[in-house]
Amino acid sequence: MSVSEMFIALQGVLTADQDIREEIRKVVQVMEQTAREILTLLQGVHQGAGFQDIPKKCQKAREHFSTVRTQMESLKTKFPADQYYRFHEHWRFVLQRLVFLAAFVVYLESEALVTREAVAEILGIEADRERGFHLDIEDYLSGVLTLASELARLAVNSVTAGDYSRPLRISTFINELDSGFRLLNLKNDSLRKRYDGLKYDVKKIEEVVYDLSIRGLNKEATAAAGAEK
Amino acid sequence: GSGGFRKRKHDNFPHGQRREEKENVNPSSALMMSFKSFQLELDTRHDKYERLVKLSRDITIESKRTIFLLHRFTSAPNGEEILNESEVKLDAVRRKIKQVAQELVGEDMYQFHRAISPGLQEYVEAVSFQYFIRTRSLISVEEINRQLIFTAEDREETRNMTSSSLDKQPHTWSLKVTPVDYLLGVADLTGELMRLCISSVGNGDIDTPFELSQFLRQIYDGFTFIGNTGPYEVSKKLYTLKQSLAKVENACYTLKVRGSEIPKHMLADVFSSKTDLIDQEESLS
């Protein structure tokens, strides 16, 4: 094969590659749109009145996730199944965002951390690599860290809205999350950077709890929580 | 540190007793259990990555040494010897690549691509340099990949294996150099060819420079054909490639113009000063 023939062949490969990337970008753009819609919907909980109809908002968000699942189906068809990591960076951001949104919905519903399997199910993808388009563990953890910042904000706003018991529950949750993350040996990458922000969320929530307790505002709340146990 | 932290926190709460129950994280809760499994998964992944980085570095070093060895190649009688020696070295590199391939069994190669890419590029450079010296043509990516299919039967491994498990299936491992790694390796190759050209003039060889400039021009044309369809790194190399080509073309020009004036035995002197000039330029850029 002559040199020029070789380069023509290589150019063909590169162009094909670019086409795939273009296709992926299109789907990812639509997904980002859906993610924004879900986020807007869930942002409502930070408003005073929003606390009353959290279940309704979650319900609506879950409906949007069915759109996400269809979009995921279409994303899967855009590239060869065994080349996930080749194009990973294109959907990494939106996937982390969607993990956060799913985790937020699940938290609001049940006040528990969504498992990796459950997120994968909500998004219509697989939990492990062997079975196809999957949720990378680092993306899952990143999404969970976003949830932590959102909950710190929720703690503040729930006090404003007069809900004094929620910050305590958030505090317990975040503390457990923090202990969980402390088990991980993170490399010096983006996940590690985001994890470094977790301690500020923990601190923020502790401040809120402190403010409530020195004013005795959490008295009934703690009593209620104690009675539950 | 965390002990003091907790203590101070408890002072904040009048209902210390109850708080403590809530605050203390149960180490066997579902959340903690799943994070323990995440720890294992991440550690496994990072370990593999580190092993691959190390292999990649070894591959880089050995490939570089092979290139240095090949630069000693002249049409002198020991030429064949050097080629054989380089083949032995490249075989050693390929054994390392086999280990990489074994690490990547069942994995998505692109997940660890960043770890091994520098090594593979250097290998492409070495193997294509040797191929050029042998055949005066460019090795194709398919040819490179053909050499990166390994079976358990070759090499000393077989002896250990067959003795322990006779019925074991002969496994094959393979690694594919990506088109982009190949292109980057070839772009580096042109730098080596430029050096080869200059030194061969120094040795009084006046045919090689013309062959080389011809060959480099073909590669340059190929790269300009790809232009910016390729990734950023490829277009970045294009600039250096242009410089190498210019140096080779200038060398050929000088040979043509002054070659007829200067007696053959003095050519080497003319060029050794010319080489100095180019080296200086290089150290400046």
TrEMBL record, chain A:
Binding residues annotated for Mg(2+), in chain numbering: E150
InterPro entries linked to this entry: Translin, Translin_C, Translin_fam, Translin_N, Translin_sf
GO function term, MF aspect, one: sequence-specific DNA binding
Listed GO CC annotations: cytoplasm; nucleus
Entries under Gene3D superfamilies matching the protein: Translin, domain 1, Translin, domain 2
Primary location recorded for the protein, binned into one broad class: cytoplasm
Keywords, alphabetical: Cytoplasm, DNA-binding, Endonuclease, Hydrolase, Magnesium, Metal-binding, Nuclease, Nucleus, RNA-binding
CDD domains: Translin
BP terms from Gene Ontology: RNA metabolic process
Origin superkingdom: Eukaryota
Pfam family, one: Translin
Locations listed in the record: Cytoplasm; Nucleus
Assembly and binders: Ring-shaped heterooctamer of six TSN and two TSNAX subunits, DNA/RNA binding occurs inside the ring.
Role of this protein: Exhibits both single-stranded and double-stranded endoribonuclease activity. May act as an activator of RNA-induced silencing complex (RISC) by facilitating endonucleolytic cleavage of the siRNA passenger strand. DNA-binding protein that specifically recognizes consensus sequences at the breakpoint junctions in chromosomal translocations, mostly involving immunoglobulin (Ig)/T-cell receptor gene segments. Seems to recognize single-stranded DNA ends generated by staggered breaks occurring at recombination hot spots.
UniProt family annotation: Belongs to the translin family.
UniProt protein name: Translin
Species: Psilopogon haemacephalus (coppersmith barbet)
Higher taxonomy: Eukaryota, Metazoa, Chordata, Craniata, Vertebrata
UniProtKB/TrEMBL annotation, chain B:
Keyword field: Cytoplasm, Developmental protein, Differentiation, DNA-binding, Golgi apparatus, Isopeptide bond, Magnesium, Metal-binding, Nucleus, Spermatogenesis, Ubl conjugation
Skewed-composition ranges (Basic residues): 1-10
Spans annotated as Disordered: 1-26
Residue ranges, compositional bias (Basic and acidic residues): 11-24
InterPro entries found in the cross-reference section: Translin_C, Translin_fam, Translin_N, Translin_sf
Keyword Ribonucleoprotein included in the entry's annotation: no
Principal subcellular localization: cytoplasm
Residues that bind Mg(2+): E125, E192
GO MF annotation terms: metal ion binding; sequence-specific DNA binding
Cross-link named Glycyl lysine isopeptide (Lys-Gly) (interchain with G-Cter in SUMO2), sites: K274
GO cellular component, as recorded: Golgi apparatus; nucleus; perinuclear region of cytoplasm
Subcellular location(s) of the protein: Cytoplasm, Perinuclear region; Golgi apparatus; Nucleus
One of the GO biological process terms: spermatogenesis
Superkingdom per UniProt: Eukaryota
A Pfam family recorded for this sequence: Translin
Protein family (similarity comment): Belongs to the translin family.
Subunit structure: Ring-shaped heterooctamer of six TSN and two TSNAX subunits. Interacts with GOLGA3, TSNAXIP1, SUN1 and AKAP9. Interacts with the homodimeric form of C1D following gamma-radiation. Interacts with TSN and C1D in a mutually exclusive manner.
Function as written in the Swiss-Prot or TrEMBL entry: Acts in combination with TSN as an endonuclease involved in the activation of the RNA-induced silencing complex (RISC). Possible role in spermatogenesis.
Protein name as annotated: Translin-associated protein X
Taxonomic source organism: Psilopogon haemacephalus (coppersmith barbet)
Gene name for this UniProt entry: Tsnax
